[in-house]
Amino acid sequence: MSKILLAGGAGYIGSHTAVELLEAGYEVVIADNYSNSCPESIKRVEKITGKQVQAYEVDVKDKDKLSVIFKENKIDAVIHFAGLKAVGESVEKPVLYYRNNIDTTLTLLECMNEYGVKNIIFSSSATVYGEENPVPYTEEMKRGTCTNPYGWTKVMMEQILEDAAKADKDMSVVLLRYFNPIGAHESGIMGEDPQGIPNNLMPYVAQVAVGRRDHLTIFGKDYPTPDGTCRRDYIHVVDLAKGHVKAIDFVFKNKGVEVFNLGTGTPYSVTEIVTTFQKENDIEIKVEYGDRRAGDLPESYANADKALNVLGWKTEKNLADMCRDLWRWQSNNPYGYNQK
Ligand code: WQD
């Protein structure tokens, strides 16, 4: 049975991926420093699957501690979720973002090299398409100009991984470019648990719904889109997690670098998101309109053909599922994993 190391596996996408890997028969080891997550998410993974997860409290930048995991386990592949991801914070603290995100990647690659681990899947982002590429994005487009340091760290990490694979022909690297993951596990016991004021749309909507925030501010209504609000490719986090299982099967059978968009291919506007959330959950979301947020593009959505053709993966859940599952999680756990 293959053993997969999830670096940053206690977080939102990592925990959902752990469930899908365990259910597909893989063994899972998690390394996380809980800087933006908590051990409770791993307990929920175990509860959902009825299987055990080996977890190490480790900062992935700490090579001595990370090496222990490779020493104690025969790791067959790594999925690299570990990283800071708040766009606004990255503008204020660029050095922190470059140091953290680049260092985690280099440290993982050094350990993999020392212990002969050849397979890695990386959590990249649609943000690497930058400002100049037209939608829908296809994988062969050149990486573009990012509007913030967080985005640049993703660009740089993709480059580092490509160079590592170029130098070692036995390596297999898959870069997964996520679009906008939302929703939660349908059990209602696992979901996104942002610390502080949420940066992203859906967690904010959910916190307004549960009464933790007064209203949602929609950032801009004068974009060149059908209703004037930005459009994004929202993808259910469980569909996204299943994409990782397909990617794991793929890395074991291939060498070199392959890039896949993980999105639905269908964009929705901010207004459509709010309307659907209200309708599906029969809850009113108070909305105000504000200025555009710096760095936001009018539209971002995938051409998802390659993942279908090569991995045999496509999304199964629709926007209504995303809204209902998010609300089940948020209403059961108003304060996330650390109930007040
Ligand atoms: C979606 C839409 C906002 C909040 C970013 C990163 C990406 C990925 C996900 C991080 C936009 C609007 C939002 C609010 C609003 N990485 N909005 N009011 O900006 O597409 O993507 O997060 O982990 O790499 O770039 O996602 O959810 O922040 O915004 O009107 O209070 O919702 O303007 O149009 P985004 P988002």
Helicity, in percent? Answer: 40-55%
User: What is the topology, as strand order, of the major beta sheet?
Assistant: 3-2-1-4-5-6-11
Mean pLDDT, all residues: 98
**Rg calc:** 19 Å
Largest sheet: 7 strands, parallel
Figure out the total of helices.
Answer: 11
The succession of helices and strands, N to C, reads EHEHEHEHHEHEEHEEEHEEHEEHH
Number of strands: 14
Name the structural class: alpha/beta
The coarse overall form would be globular
In percent terms, what proportion of residues is strand? Answer: 15-25%
> pLDDT below 50 for ≥5 consecutive residues: which ranges?
none
Walk me through the structure:
The structure is a single chain. The protein has 340 residues and is of the alpha/beta class. Helix content is 41%, strand content 18%. It contains eleven helices and 14 strands. The strands form four sheets. The chain has a seven-stranded parallel sheet with strand order 3-2-1-4-5-6-11, sandwiched between helices. It has a three-stranded mixed sheet with strand order 12-9-14. Helix 1 packs across helix 8 (237-253). Bound molecules: UDP-4-deoxy-4-formamido-beta-L-arabinopyranose.
Quickly describe the structure.
The chain is of the alpha/beta class and 340 residues long. The chain is 41% helix and 18% strand. Helix 1 (12-23) crosses helix 8, helix 3 packs parallel to helix 5 (94-115) and helix 7 (201-209) crosses helix 11.
Mind sketching the topology for me?
Layout: E1 3-7, H1 12-23, E2 27-32, H2 40-49, E3 54-57, H3 63-72, E4 77-80, H4 87-92, H5 94-115, E5 119-125, H6 149-167, E6 172-178, E7 180-182, H7 201-209, E8 216-219, E9 231-232, E10 234-236, H8 237-253, E11 256-262, E12 268-269, H9 270-281, E13 287-290, E14 299-300, H10 305-311, H11 319-332
Helix pairs in contact: 1-2, 1-8, 3-5, 5-6, 7-11, 9-11
UDP-4-deoxy-4-formamido-beta-L-arabinopyranose binds next to helix 7 and strand 8.
